[in-house]
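In this section we walk through a basic example: taking a raw amino acid sequence and producing a predicted 3D structure, encoded as discrete structure tokens. The instruction is simple. Fold the sequence below.
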Amino acid sequence: MQVLDNIMARAKQARKRIVLCEGDDPRVLKAAVRAAQDGIADISLVGERAGIEATATDNNLSLDAITLIDPAESSLTPSLVETLYQLRHKKGMTQERAEHEVQKPLVFADLLVRLGHADGSVAGAVHTTADVVRSAIQIVGVKPGAKLVSSFFLMVMEEPHHRRKGGMIFSDCGLVIDPKAEELAEIAKAAADSARALLGEEPKVAMLSFSTNGSAKHAAVDKVVEAARQVKAERPELAIDEDIQLDAAIVPEIAQRKLPDSRVKGEANVLIFPDLEAGNIGYKLAERIGGAKAIGPMLQGLAKPANDLSRGCSADDVYHVVAVTALQAQAVEQE
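The resulting token sequence is shown next.
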């Protein structure tokens, strides 16, 4: 796939340090070894050494290209304990509790990112989304100026039947359930940045609705319009349509009829859904009926990338998320 090939090539050039914390899961270990051997990123695996080595043996995998870090024996552990204590002591974290928490691979991995020992983290094959997101927000932290952490899917459409071939950003399909207008605006801005970083294209943003340019009157439409106008006020250079139906967002001929003054002109590469219900349904329709490849959910709005996996992910899914995480880390460095 051209979109993924491009992402892999750029990740190899960036060569960022990505840490994973579920190395005793065969899917994660296979992806980590493959990513390291392919030069997608410099890979560290955090976890119990014996468990990871046993998984590698069982799956005939070599760990030669991987940096293996066991919190129980790492020289970094004391500094990570102190960092966690300083971050969370106002929330009731004690020194003893910090020592216990740092032994958890997810916490240890995110602390590596926080302190600059890694450029990004990937978890979620075993951990729940709630655990991954909570750790990321508490430890890695929110991006300066960002008011919200949200998610997106990179949707890849390169099958023969796809009319528009390439990549698109769908947001938010995995995290923020019912965003207010100001939250929807934050999601749109973050998704536009994600499109620029991953697709290498200027973002063209469609604020999806059941209305196009005021064709329907409802509070749900008003929310979308208000969010779009907030984005326009803050980023006047950004191509964005206000309330717009999906067909007008992605089909130029329909956009010309329904919204002739559109700046997106039916060529949206960023679709912003009005709520999580619509987003979740939308990406799964595109994936399961439309045949698109869905990569994610990826997190946006963090100070550094710390991404979630589906617990039903494959080794290929993990591999692709590692590459996307590397490009996100590169974007952070360039800001």
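Looking at the output, two observations stand out. The first strand starts at residue 17 and ends at 20. Residues 315-334 form the longest helix (20 residues). In the next section we compare this with other chains.
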